[in-house]
Amino acid sequence: MSLTKKILLGMGLGILVGLFFNLALPDFFDEVNSYLFVPLGTIFLNLIKMLVVPIVLVSLILGTAGISDPKKLGRMGLKTISFFLATTAFAIIIAMGTSLIVQPGSGNYSLAGAEYEGTEAPPVMDTLLNIIPTNAIDSMVQGNMLQIIFFSILIGFALARLGSKVQGLTRLVEQANEVLMFLVNFIMKIAPYGAFGLIATAVGSQGYDAFSAMLKYMLVVLFVLLLQVIVVYGSALTTLGKMSPIKFLKGFSPAMIVAFSTSSSSATLPVSMRAAQDNLGVSKPVSGFVQPLGATINMDGTAIMQGVATVFIAQVAGVDLTIGQMLTVLLTATLASIGTAGVPGVGLIMLSMVLTSVGLPVEAIALILGVDRLLDMCRTATNITGDAVCAVIVDRTEGVSEEAEAQQESA
Ligand code: ASP
């Protein structure tokens, strides 16, 4: 049986077992959860998270060093950032448009008694300046992705410039990359058990009462997520990436399932890079450049939730959003995603920044809190799919794969 099928099986069993305990044996859930489901999930999650910082460091250094032409690097950077910004803006626009038509907040909702501690968006300048670390080791200790990305790109650039002078160091980083990718493959063997544990915990601890009250909101978010994956990514893949969406889904599904189980783009990064390189034929330099960057700054699924939730909360609060406010939502949601890491639940923190920026009541987040876990799983899978689609497109349009193959053949 293929690994994807095994992970799917683990996930399916996790749903069944989680539901069984939730509905039939709720009194026993805590016990079984803390001694079986949580340990299984945590072992897998910790093992894979352990590799994130070294993989981002090593693969971005190699990615940048592998593109020795600075012009090409600049062009790739521009393409990547433009794709990220365009798909995120598109995601928020279709999310708000759909919500304005469907009106998910038109039911009987009340904000009385709702409580939620909000966070204000940091000034844009701070977010941008903060990308340059003052201590690169500290960035790695803290797992500050943007800073690690900045540092790695500079090192990679230096390696490319110094060429044969630093051959030994380049070789060392290449070999470190081999070791890390071997470990990803190795750890993925226990992914089915990890997915089982993570999903059983998530499904078993859900309060389903919240679901029926919030059904309309959830359905709108899920519908727009599907729209983004099928229509936006599907058409980008066929037209710009020259790849059939079916081939893409087949190759990338292991990463999507891991994202769904872990709710974290950062934690899924090792798996999504492996899937893009091994199954979609994306060259190492492009995958190493685009995907770590995407896992941190490109969150289309999260942006969709921001769009739907803002319109939903405005409807509940009886506020008509102006065009200016909608543009503010678009801008704040995009900027907020640059500064925040891809970890579980971070979308809610971003949402509080977005709501504050347009003067909507932050405590209204309490309404959607109960159903956010399930949506987080689905939007994380969307987030990393957007990064991989971008990697395929950049790879195909820059012809990096063919170049790498030719280099290998001549070596
Ligand atoms: N969990 C999401 C991610 O890691 C972020 C979010 O929407 O909360 O991509």
Could you explain the architecture of this structure?
With 411 residues, this protein is mainly alpha-helical. The chain contains 20 helices and no strands. It has helices at residues 3-23, 26-50, 52-66, 70-102, 124-129, 136-142, 145-162, 167-188, 191-204, 209-213, 215-241, 245-262, 265-279, 284-297, 300-316, 323-339, 346-357, 365-369, 372-398, 400-410. Helix 1 (3-23) packs parallel to helix 9 (191-204), helix 4 (70-102) packs parallel to helix 15 and helix 14 (284-297) runs antiparallel to helix 19. The chain is globular, with a radius of gyration of 21 Å. Bound molecules: aspartic acid.
- Small molecules in complex: aspartic acid
Mean pLDDT: 89
pLDDT under 50 segments (min length 5)? none
Number of helices: 20
Main structural class: mainly alpha
Distance between the termini: 36 Å
Order of helices and strands: HHHHHHHHHHHHHHHHHHHH
What can be said about the biggest beta sheet? none
The geometry reads as globular
Radius of gyration: 21 Å
Percentage beta strand: under 5%
Strand count: 0
- Percent helix: over 70%
Relevant terms:
411 residues, mainly alpha, 20 helices, binds aspartic acid
Could you outline the blueprint of secondary structure elements for this entry?
Layout: H1 3-23, H2 26-50, H3 52-66, H4 70-102, H5 124-129, H6 136-142, H7 145-162, H8 167-188, H9 191-204, H10 209-213, H11 215-241, H12 245-262, H13 265-279, H14 284-297, H15 300-316, H16 323-339, H17 346-357, H18 365-369, H19 372-398, H20 400-410
The structure holds aspartic acid (ASP).
Aspartic acid (ASP) binds near residues 343, 346 and 383.
